[in-house]
Amino acid sequence: MRNPHAGEPFATSDEDIAAALEDVSIPTLLLSLVHMSQNPDLIRGRLRPAGLFLNEVQGYMTEEDKAEARALALEVIRDYRDRGCPEPEPVSAELLHEMMSWLVCEKVPDEYVPMLMEEMELDGSDARRVGVQADPAAREAFPVVVIGCGQSGLLAGIRLKEAGIPFTIVEKNPGVGGTWWENSYPGARVDVGNHFYCYSFEPSDAWTEFFAQQPELQAYFEAVMHKHDIGPHVRWETEVLGAQWDEADGTWSVRVRAKDGAESSLRARAVISAVGQLNRPHIPEIPGQETFSGPAFHSAAWDHAVDIAGRRVAMIGAGASGFQIAPTIAPEVAHLTVFQRTAQWMFPNPNYHAAVGPGVRWALRHLPFYGRWYRFLIFWPSCDKGLEGARVDPDYPDQQRAVSARNELTRQMFTDWITSQIDNDPELLAKVIPDYPATGKRTLQDNGSWLRTLTRDNVDLIRTEIDHIEPEGIVTVDGERHPADVIVYATGFFASRVLWPMDITGRDGVELRSLWGERPAAYLGITVPGFPNFFCMYGPGTNLAHGGSLIFHSECQMRYITQCLETLIAGGHHAMEPRKERYDDWHERTQREIKTLVWSQPSVKHSFFKNAYGEIHVLSPWRLVDYWEWTKKPDLGDFVVR
Ligand code: NAP
To answer: How far is CA 633 from its chain centroid?
Structure first.
């Protein structure tokens, strides 16, 4: 069978090939040429990228060099086409490493190469798929319940199906996607490049934007669900209320409530929670909010029945969601008042709203491994570099401003980006430059649309605290009244209350909620002592603020979980749970590590990463390469297996 990443054979005309090459990433193209021609000298000459920056996919090559590369590419591609587009011979491991380093203008350290090779699947094999060991009858007797059908729950379903393990996914919504189902607010889009933000084994050449909007993302997950025929395993519009472990027969009883209110139970030998961390909307309590006379709703529960055109909208909160909503709705509303408690740092990304040209889609579909190298090109700059940038130098003098010399440079880059857009408006500038270190909260992707929005005549940015809400609008503590017809709460989620509000009761009647309180923890973010055969995806300590993508993390977690299930089934075991000392050690080390990073700094006053005590239990402080290594294969010495 042809390697799925070798591209579909084509008979495209010279003219159309030349037109397609106008759109593509030239450094990525040059690597595809090496596969087509088997000639590494193509990348050993003068033509090469000059530098690396996240989402800058042309490697700062000059227009002349790009034109020369296109002319060369036309020759190589024409020859490849005329030879009938044969599947390229595999390239040696040494050359692949050379190609990686060439593309990102630095030597990719040896320790990263195995992870990247797996992520790129250049050999066409899906290495994260777990090989089946136990016999079919043993699998049949091991039903699993997955809670949630977002990106991680769908992945769980795909992997369980591949392993022949029976499963039911319980999903409270009527469709797949989780976050990408619920967050349909105007302007919702992903801020990790889509050619990386998709399953490693299910790339798509159909994205119409580099950072797709919600409908396209939801459609992607739907298409993947259909392709793997996961739909029949899902109970839609059914909410999990809780789950209780029965030690005697080694099963979980999962209590569910259907749309009609009827409650019932599902029995499972194992439970996989795939509910995400950003799922339960948070609306702050503001005096008088119940008296407001117009519609009011949360960004994650956007009321599309409300026509906001020509109306006065007040948006409370402007983090990642508000940052996308305001530029989208400002042109159609009569007036938009943005109430922002904390200014946000933003990362320059001129292509944030850019469309994917037809030439890129052609290249993704036809040019050998173009999509794989493009994936790597987006992944690498966000792979662990952000973590080093987040590290605190305790000797750095002004910790309120920056946590290290490197962090100061980031601050200056971000400040320059903001200032370059509004240097003629000192009043606005003073309101939008954050007063805490760069990257201290989740950094937003920006193409200039946010500040353009704030300079519109019909938009006001209010940084003064809200005092109360009245029937006709919002009143700030300085006594000023801000009239509004509609209130949008873009105020985030209960991120620290992981798995809330479900009641999960483990061995000896221990309740997960009381065990965790505001300090959720799980070994590797996946398992908890006292909760046998219970596994978390996107669990405590696995959210990512320093790069990568949650899909990458989910794939690591699900490989680990599937192997745990295989161990249980093949060994005929009753249950497994992590040893308490391993869990305690993990939690202690994770807490120690997170305190060395910018997100924990007291100078960051408000952040959903922090719990009520100012501690962080939801984020991973670890390098992706380490997490990948640790989750590659469960160490049974970490578990009590009964
Ligand atoms: P968020 O980033 O937590 O922002 C919430 C906003 O509400 C902040 O401006 C916050 O102010 C404000 N707020 C919260 N409580 C408040 C209170 N009591 N009084 C005044 N203001 C209050 O939430 P989000 O925007 O929904 O985003 C959450 C996460 O979802 C993101 O970090 C990201 O992980 C994900 N997300 C991703 C994308 C994407 O991929 N493009 C888009 C949207 C969301 P403070 O800053 O002062 O706390």
So the answer is: 23
Q: Closest Cα to residue 402, out of 429, 440, 432, 431?
A: 440
> Whole-model pTM?
0.97
* Average confidence (pLDDT) over 51-80: 97
pLDDT at 17 over 90: yes
Share of the chain above pLDDT 70, in %: 100
Q: Which residues contact 424 (CB under 8 A, 6 or more apart)?
A: none
Question: How distant, in Å, are the alpha carbons of 62, 257, 262, 502 from that of 265?
Answer: 63, 9, 10, 14
Nearest Cα residue to 337 out of 252, 472, 461: 461
Ligand 1: residue whose CA is nearest its atom 18: 284
pLDDT at 176 over 90: yes
Measured from the Cα of 285, ligand 1's closest atom is 18
pLDDT at 29: 98
Tell whether ligand 1 has an atom less than 6 A from the beta carbon of residue 446.
Answer: no
- Assign 3-class secondary structure to 478-519: CCCEEECCEEEECCCECCCCCCCCCEEECHHHCEHHHHHCCC
Residue 464 Cβ inside 6 Å of ligand 1? The answer reads no
Residue 290: the pLDDT is 98
- Which ligand 1 atom is at minimum distance from the Cα of 442? 32
Arithmetic mean of pLDDT, 375-404: 95
The Å distance, Cα 299 to ligand 1 centre, comes to 10
